[in-house]
Amino acid sequence: MRIGIILGSIREGRANEGVAKWVKDVAEAYTSDLTFELVDLKDYPLPLFNEAASPAYTDDLAAKEQQRPWAEKMASLDGYIFVTPEYNHGLPSVLKNALDYVYNELNDKAAGIVSYGSAGGVRSAEQLRTVLSEF
Questions:
Q1: Distances from the Cα of 49 to the Cα of 59, 96, 115, angstroms
Q2: Domain ranges in the chain?
Q3: What is the mean pLDDT of the chain?
Q4: What are the b/e assignments for 68-77, b being 16+ CB within 10 Å?
């Protein structure tokens, strides 16, 4: 099984990359039954989601070249660990935006959350958990 460790921030000077690499190291030391891969949102630039319908209700987005690499990457994974900072008492907009572009790719797959920041990133994790429950 392939587990994607999703870097939920694209800010310059972000701590997110170091936290995600630490999560990968811990996960790989814990089990050899799974393959872990870092998936950096910086590698999948997406415009602001402004579509007429959610990907849950249409497959039109699959035809758009800009969204295709992100959707294909997420579809190729069996589960996810989202590494998210807390920005302004919430999850980063880039992470929410990226999730708005997928639905079927994440549907019924397991996901975990590693958060950090003010109060341990609990507000970011809480918001992300609510969003992920839709999948």
A1: 15, 9, 24
A2: 2-10+19-132
A3: 93
A4: eebbebbeeb
Query: Residue 86: its pLDDT value, please?
Result: 96
Predicted local confidence at residue 74, as pLDDT: 97
Alpha helices in the chain (DSSP H): 16-30, 68-76, 93-100, 122-132
Say what the pLDDT of residue 13 is: 94
Higher-confidence position of 63 and 32 = 32
CATH of 2-10+19-132, one of 3.40.50.300, 3.90.780.10, 3.40.50.360, 3.30.930.10: 3.40.50.360
Q: The tokens of 56 are what? A: 């849950």
Smallest CA-to-CA distance from 95 within 41, 18, 15 is with: 41
Length of the chain: 135
Q: For residue 127, name the pLDDT band (cuts at 50, 70, 90).
A: very high
H helices within 5-103, ranges in order?
Answer: 16-30, 68-76, 93-100
Higher pLDDT, 67 or 122: 122
**What residues pair up with 7 in beta bridges, in sequence order?**
40, 83
